[in-house]
């Protein structure tokens, strides 16, 4: 057997935190260890998967009036404002994901102009770049003009 680098106390602490439903990332951050160390501890025990904790506080999401929330978000109300108004025990990210899942995706608005060639013309005009004369350092302002038929 290879040299054991993590103490038995550390291994027990890792297992207990996993049983409580903490993620490997949270455990690694709180104990100051690498996630690979957690995986090695689990592999030594033959338990490659951490027990899945039930989502905390997501039951409140089912009671919300999602139609109203989606309508408000479509009218331009920021999602963060909607989340703050609901006073949930759910993170903003979970609320945002659920709202995005329920909100239908909208296509960008475009318009296609149908006309026969030569029948209509479209003109675009704007300021261009400034040209500098090398000899006199005089600046000449340019303009761009585009005609599309």
Structure explained in plain terms:
Helices cover 40% and strands 14% of the residues. With 149 residues, the protein is of the alpha+beta class. A two-stranded antiparallel sheet has the order 1-2. A hairpin with a 6-residue loop joins strand 1 and strand 2 (139-148). Mean pLDDT is 80; it is low at 50-57.
Give the key terms:
single chain, 149 residues, alpha+beta, two-stranded antiparallel sheet
Q: Give the SSE string.
A: HHHHHHEE
Q: Give the low-pLDDT segments.
A: 50-57
- Give the radius of gyration: 31 Å
Range of strand content = 5-15%
- The portion of residues assigned to helices is 25-40%
Widest sheet: strand ordering: 1-2
Label the structural class: alpha+beta
Largest sheet: 2 strands, antiparallel
Per DSSP, the total helix count is: 6
What's the β-strand tally? 2
pLDDT average, as an integer?
Answer: 80
* Overall form: elongated
CA(first)-CA(last) distance: 80 Å
Short description:
The chain has 149 residues and is an alpha+beta fold. Helix content is 40%, strand content 14%.
């Amino acid at each position: 057997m290879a040299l054991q680098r993590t103490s038995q106390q550390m291994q027990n602490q890792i297992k207990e935190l996993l049983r409580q439903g903490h993620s490997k990332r949270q455990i690694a951050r709180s104990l100051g260890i690498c996630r690979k160390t957690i995986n090695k501890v689990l592999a030594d025990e033959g338990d490659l998967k951490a027990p899945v904790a039930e989502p905390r506080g997501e039951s409140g999401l089912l009671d919300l009036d999602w139609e109203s929330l989606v309508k408000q978000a479509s009218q331009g109300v920021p999602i963060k404002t909607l989340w703050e108004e609901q006073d949930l025990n759910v993170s903003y990210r979970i609320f945002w994901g659920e709202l995005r899942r329920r909100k239908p995706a909208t296509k960008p608005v475009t318009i296609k102009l149908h006309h026969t060639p030569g029948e209509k013309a479209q003109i675009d005009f704007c300021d261009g770049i400034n040209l500098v004369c090398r000899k006199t350092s005089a600046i000449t302002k340019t303009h761009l003009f585009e005609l599309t038929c």
